[in-house]
Specification:
alpha+beta; about 25% helix; T2SS_protein_J; T2SS_protein-GspJ; cell membrane; Type II secretion system protein J; transmembrane helix
Length: about 200
């Protein structure tokens, strides 16, 4: 008579338990992998946004011209470059740059553009208008560059010292009444303080 080998009920239960544990471990590892991938993609997107903002600001500041602007009420700006002087702490800096990139412009449009950088409710934004001297109907284009920021600080270098305000003074190295360099410090929960340094034509 031949003996028949088989599994006991306990052995089957143990094997089932082990398979269940392995399945759960596999799902956890897969979830961790997907979460890590999503986190990495989010971080890379944030870094790309920071680099894009840096490139835009750098390009604007490199094109500063010695031209004051008027607002929609006809009031002339205090200087070619105004920075850190806004009492409501919204406007970081404003100036006129060469090269108008507003959409829909004709050949007869001005080649100059008024640019203002603002920080409000955790958002760093760039505001431009199609005409340097504004009217009540002058189109304004505002673009959000960075969001979810804790704070933003700006400082200006005159060739000798750094200051947190700039209204009309001359740079030590150039006749353009603009700072030789601009420092922008952005604070985010993930990266902490991120400092950007930009040079202007007054610093060349």
């Amino acid at each position: 008579m031949t003996d028949e080998a088989g599994f006991t009920l306990i052995e089957v239960m143990v094997a089932t338990f082990i398979m269940g544990v392995l399945s759960v471990m596999g799902l956890v590892m897969l979830d961790d992998t997907l979460s890590s991938k999503e986190t990495l993609e989010y971080v890379l997107e944030e870094v790309q946004d920071i680099e894009q903002a840096r490139a835009i600001i750098k390009n604007d500041l490199a094109q500063i011209v010695s031209r004051t602007a008027r607002d929609e009420f006809g009031f002339k700006a205090e200087s070619v470059f105004v920075g850190g002087a806004d009492l409501d702490n919204v406007s970081l800096m404003s100036f006129v740059r060469n090269g108008n990139e507003m959409p829909g412009l004709t050949a007869a449009s001005s080649s100059l553009q008024h640019v203002e950088y603002r920080f409000e409710n955790g958002v760093l934004s760039r505001r431009t208008r199609s005409r340097v001297d504004a009217a009540t109907d002058t189109p304004i284009l505002e673009r959000e560059l960075l969001t979810n920021l804790a704070s933003a600080q700006i400082e200006f270098y005159d060739g000798l010292l750094w200051t947190d305000k700039w209204i009309g003074q001359m740079s030590a190295s150039n006749a353009i009444p603009a700072p030789a360099a601009v420092g922008l410090i952005l604070h985010s929960a993930r990266y902490g303080p991120v400092r950007m340094l930009f040079y202007t034509p007054a610093g060349y």
